Amino acid sequence: MERLIACVHERPDALCRLICFPWAGSGTSQLAQWGKLFSNSIEVFCIRFPGRGIRLNEPFAKDMTSIVNEVTSVLLKELKEKPFAFFGHSFGSYVSFAVALNLKKNYGLEPVQLFISGAHAPHSEAVLPIKNVVISDVKDEEVFAYLQSLEGTSSDLLCNEDIRKRLVLTFREDLRVLQTFSFEKAEMGIPFSCDITCFNGSDDKPHDLQGWQEITSGDTSFYELPGGHFYLLEPSNESFLIKHITRCIEYAGP
Question: What is the residue range of the signal peptide feature (predicted)?
């Protein structure tokens, strides 16, 4: 389990687990640290995708199904033993949603809450431009410029050519994974009954968040926080997220 999960602060007696799914191109360095910030009632796991961190020498995932199957098989025992919630940012939102779908369909399990950040609803037409990008046609310089514009990576790291190349490669591979995932709401109906909370940066591009309320019979709420795509890296916003997620999880109860 250590290959897949980063848990920097183990809390075996926690009442609930928060499973975090990072954004495209990234590892566990940011979201895993949330484990130190939550109260003793919540234990934080951060998913480590192949091709990065201690899994650097493993091949990248080829499609969403392989990631979903790995997360499900490794975590199923833990997810059955106590309540859990999912948090995903950007690419991680789609992965968390795909894992949640698999858990509900095949095991009758669902999170007590889904926390979605910086991502269109999975069945939105706004996802189509992402799906239609011909990745092989996009030059490394264009990918790098795009990543720079998002301001989610330290400029010191971006000055290192090896790190820059690895970041671009990892982002490309995560985008390939995203392109293999599709969700047809007409075929699925309303898959969830849990509440969904959607977060977005005020200066980020608009996301089709309203569509998320169509995939659950539970409540859906929306919060806009100051900043761009990586608003969640701002300490004040991070503090808000920690407090809000804690309230939602404790309100949901065991």
Answer: none
pTM beyond 0.90, yes or no? yes
- Over the stretch 59-85, which tens digit does the pLDDT of each residue have? 999 999 999 999 999 999 999 999 999
Please, are residues 104 and 190 in contact by the beta-carbon 8 Å criterion? no
Q: What count of other Cβ atoms lies within 10 Å of the Cβ of residue 107?
A: 12
DSSP at 109: -
Q: What is the DSSP string of 155-176?
A: HHHHTSHHHHHHHHHHHHHHHH
Q: What SS3 class is residue 138?
A: coil
| H helix or E strand, kind and range, residue 131 | helix 128-131
Using alpha carbons, select from 86, 79, 87, 133 the residue that is nearest to residue 108.
79
Query: What phi, psi does 70 have (nearest 5°)?
Result: -65, -50
Q: Which CATH architecture has domain 5-252?
A: 3-Layer(aba) Sandwich (3.40)
Q: Compute the distance between CA of residue 34 and CA of residue 36 in angstroms, rounded to an integer.
A: 5
CA separation, residue 242 to residues 115, 139, 159, 235, 236 (Å): 11, 37, 31, 10, 10
Provide the token pair at 148.
């720079």
Contact status, residue 7 vs residue 43, Cβ threshold 8 Å: yes
Q: Which helix (H) or strand (E) holds 83?
A: none
What is the arithmetic mean of pLDDT over 122-151?
86
Catalytic residues: 90, 229
Name the amino acid, one letter, at 213: Q
**What is the 8-class DSSP label of residue 194?**
S
